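Is this the right way to post structure tokens for a design question? Let me know if I should format differently. Anyway, here goes:
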């Protein structure tokens, strides 16, 4: 589960949803996208936060998104270490390649959207997420900390694939 500052998350998810709908829907646009994504992601965070409290905190590794962007190799090495899994040279090469690609070329982020494009504003988004987070979590989220919760408890013991940003760990 990735947590980003709520206004950043929602604007990004709205843009993603909008780009996925051309040719499929003439209704799921603008404000409809905004309302749907706001409800989906704030509900998801509420449910995740509630569920996470039922598990041993040691099963989760929280990653600051800034650390991932500033030191992707070191951050991914932390994930491997937390899972007590050796990081192969193939995985190191994949992390390096993905990082280089994400900073240049076609995968370089080009954000051309804002909350207002989807009928939303920061106050509305913060209010929706305030219900999902306790006060300390809300302060942390709004300060720009991105958390990636990884549950080591469900990892298959025979898993030997690379763990890289954007890669889904099989459970």
């Amino acid at each position: 589960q990735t947590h980003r500052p709520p206004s950043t998350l929602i604007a990004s998810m709205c843009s993603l949803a909008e780009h996925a709908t051309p040719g499929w829907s003439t209704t799921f646009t603008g404000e409809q996208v905004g309302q749907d994504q706001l409800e989906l992601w704030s509900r998801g965070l509420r449910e995740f936060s509630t569920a996470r409290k039922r598990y041993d905190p040691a099963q989760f590794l929280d990653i600051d998104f800034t650390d991932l962007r500033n030191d992707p190799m070191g951050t991914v090495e932390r994930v491997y270490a937390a899972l007590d899994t050796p990081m192969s040279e193939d995985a190191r090469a994949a992390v390096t390649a993905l990082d280089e690609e994400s900073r240049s070329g076609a995968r370089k982020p080009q954000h051309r959207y804002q909350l207002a494009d989807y009928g939303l504003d920061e106050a509305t988004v913060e209010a929706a997420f305030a219900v999902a987070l306790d006060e300390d979590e809300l302060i942390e989220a709004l300060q720009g900390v991105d958390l990636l919760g990884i549950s080591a408890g469900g990892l298959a013991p025979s898993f030997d694939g690379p763990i890289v940003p954007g890669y889904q760990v099989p459970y």
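Format looks fine. Someone answered above. Worth noting: Strands lie at 2-3, 147-148. The helical segments are 6-20, 30-52, 65-70, 72-82, 89-103, 122-132, 135-142.
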